[in-house]
Specification:
The protein is α/β, with parallel strands linked by helices. It is 30% helix and 22% strand. The chain has 8 helices and 15 strands. The N and C termini lie far apart (47 Å). Residues 19-219 form the Calcineurin-like phosphoesterase domain.
């Protein structure tokens, strides 16, 4: 077990605009299409930048289930280092980070695809390059903050978080905060093995700041009590969604296919009726 990198800042300026992006899960082609729709352009240093200086903010779960986890890791390693993007912690990100750190974890629910990608990468590029990428990925995932406070003119206007957050937790750090941000308000596991999730957004009493979250896929972006869910299950054949702040605009691109290998996806709960 190696030294855990220091967490990056959990404050992001929205003075030039921010584009929140929902769960990508290795859907790199859809991610690239979404960036183009948002107006990002490749610069001379190879990074994608917005002409107006907007920042890209991922809600986590960039890996697992889909086909291109390594490409997504490489993108955020490069773009966070360049100061043009950020990302918060997430449940799949946390699992992959611990695996990269050599901890005893069971890779399942699509995380095993990340292991396979690294195996193929090492075969193609050699152990030295593979070791470097593993360390860069470990640092990226371990250093991601539990949530991101987005400020405009020094005022807190939005919070980016993977699975949810209580208003009392905003700005704080503790094991309870990290767990809630990664997994949401979970009340055990159902007979089908899926987590039983409490509707934390439905129970929210305040309406500010706006909380933008993912993790629990919905067929369409869902607004409730000052929260906005932008996980539209791209890896399950749904959509990849971005939320543009301060424009209050939603931009989505359709998935090219259902990459998950699951016929009964989380979206089924909302579409079966």
């Amino acid at each position: 077990m190696r030294h855990k990198p220091q967490t990056r800042s959990k404050v992001l300026s929205a003075d030039n605009g921010v584009d929140f992006v929902g769960d990508v899960h290795g859907c790199y082609d859809e991610f690239m299409e979404l960036l183009k729709r948002l107006g990002y352009e490749r610069s001379q240093d190879g990074t994608f930048r917005h002409p107006q200086g907007r920042k890209l903010l991922s809600l986590g779960d960039i890996t697992s289930r889909g086909p291109h986890s390594i490409k997504m890791l490489q993108f955020f390693i490069q773009h966070i280092a360049a100061g043009v993007a950020e990302m918060v912690d997430s449940n799949h990100g946390w699992k992959v980070a611990r695996w990269l750190d050599g901890r005893p974890v069971t890779l399942a629910h699509g995380d095993e695809k990340v292991e396979e990608e690294f195996r193929v990468y090492q075969q193609e590029y050699g152990p030295k390059k593979a070791s470097l990428l593993r360390e860069q990925s470990r640092r990226l995932l371990f250093s991601s903050p539990s949530h991101m406070m987005v400020k405009k003119n020094d005022k807190l206007v939005a919070v980016a978080v993977h699975a949810g957050i209580k208003d009392d937790y905003i700005g704080l750090e503790s094991p309870a905060v990290h767990t809630f941000c990664r997994y949401g308000d979970v009340a055990g596991t159902g007979p089908d093995g899926r987590p039983i999730r409490r509707e934390w957004a439905k129970e929210r009493r305040g309406y500010e700041p706006l909380i933008v979250w993912g993790h629990d896929p919905r067929p369409e972006p869902e607004r409730q009590n000052g929260t906005l869910n932008i996980d539209q299950g791209c890896v399950f054949g749904g959509m990849l969604t971005a939320y543009r702040y301060p424009e209050d605009e939603l931009v989505s691109v359709p998935a090219k296919e259902n990459y998950s290998g699951l016929a009964d996806t989380p979206l089924t709960r909302y579409t079966a009726d």
